[in-house]
Amino acid sequence: MINSILDLKKIINDNLFDLIDGDYVLFDVPEHRNIGDQLIWRGEHDFLKQIPHNCLFISSLGYHRNPKIDKDTIILLHGGGNFGDVWVLHQKFREKIIKDYPENRIIIFPQSVQFGDKSKLVEAAKIFNNHGNITICARDSFSYELLNEHFNSCKILMVPDMAFSSSLEKKVKTTKSKDLILKRIDKELASEIDEKQFSDFEVKDWPTYNMDVIEYIKKKYTGLNRRISETLLNNDKEGLDSFRTFGFLPYRKRDNFVDIGIDFLSSYDLNITTRLHGHILSLLLGIPSIIVDNSYGKNKRFYETWLSNVNDSYFAKDVEEAIVIYKELKS
């Protein structure tokens, strides 16, 4: 039985430590402002520091150009919740890498799988099965069963989210009068949340999505970075882009985003969250958290697979049910 974060960390180590037995590259690390994805990368980074092999190359999707690597080099692909047809760009990128590197061993860090279109599932399975040397880590039991059914030439493992391998320190808390409902603002939100109905809470998404003047400038800066970088990469004949993870202009680092998330969540005594990594980061920081399901069941699947017996971890099918649990915890 899984009872703690340490149990989850051990499962990750038991499955992956010996599997990554040579030098490697890591593709598709996040360049965007989603703190959850940055937390996954932090966990991947902290885990890989234990591995007695070298990282030869890191790239994000937006600034990627295939490096020349030996066929013995292992290709690692970033984990998360974008395996399928919900977040198409990342799936297409994985499929391209599989086609471009037919001789390399490929390992995909833990992913939640969701295909709404059966034809897309069949198409993806064909590409993966034709490669013959791919390991896919499923992030929950639903994904594990789906992958085993369709991706039959791949090795399928069931492994918790890589964020559990991250080394984090809880910040000193500044107590606030309200608790938090962390409401995602993208297409994975199951149903709209009426903020007036929950006026006793602060209803917010990750602070990195706060589009005030500073964030607007940062967004414009990111667009400029992409345009300049694409121009330079297209004209780069000397391989000068070898370690350009986030383009050619300076960019905030992975840990900057994670620190923002830590500061944000540590301000609250208890969190209700529609984001999986709002829940995971809360647990890593020792903050009680109630996770609400997303639009297609990803949060519930992950909770039931790994977190139902972990201290301070609770599940609700919607925000209304979460409020009932919240009141019980507060009483």
CATH architecture call of the domain at 5-165: 3-Layer(aba) Sandwich
Largest sheet: 7 strands, parallel
The H-and-E topology, N to C, reads as: HEHEEEHEHEHEEEHHEHEHEH
Unreliable stretches (pLDDT < 50, length at least 5) are 236-243
- The separation of the N and C termini measures 29 Å
- Please state the average pLDDT score: 86
How many helical stretches?
A: 10
InterPro entries: Polysacch_pyruvyl_Trfase (IPR007345)
Domain Polysaccharide pyruvyl transferase: 34-296
Pfam families: PS_pyruv_trans (PF04230)
Keywords: Transferase
Task: Give an overview of the whole structure.
It comes from Aquimarina spongiae. GO terms for molecular function: transferase activity. The protein has helices at 5-16, 35-48, 88-100, 118-131, 141-150, 213-234, 254-265, 276-284, 298-307, 319-330; strands at 24-29, 55-60, 74-77, 80-84, 106-114, 134-138, 155-158, 179-182, 201-204, 271-273, 289-292, 313-316. It has 331 residues and is of the alpha/beta class. It has a domain at 5-165: 3-Layer(aba) Sandwich (Rossmann fold). The strands form 2 sheets. Strands 1, 2, 3, 4, 5, 6 and 7 form a 7-stranded parallel sheet that branches. A 5-stranded parallel sheet has the order 9-8-10-11-12, sandwiched between helices. Strand 1 (24-29), helix 2 and strand 2 (55-60) form a beta-alpha-beta unit. Mean pLDDT is 86; it is low at 236-243.
Spell out the blueprint of helices and strands.
Elements lengths: L4 H12 L7 E6 L5 H14 L6 E6 L13 E4 L2 E5 L3 H13 L5 E9 L3 H14 L2 E5 L2 H10 L4 E4 L20 E4 L18 E4 L8 H22 L19 H12 L5 E3 L2 H9 L4 E4 L5 H10 L5 E4 L2 H12 L1
Parallel strand pairs: 1-2, 1-3, 3-5, 4-5, 5-6, 6-7, 8-9, 8-10, 10-11, 11-12
Helix pairs in contact: 2-7, 2-8, 3-4
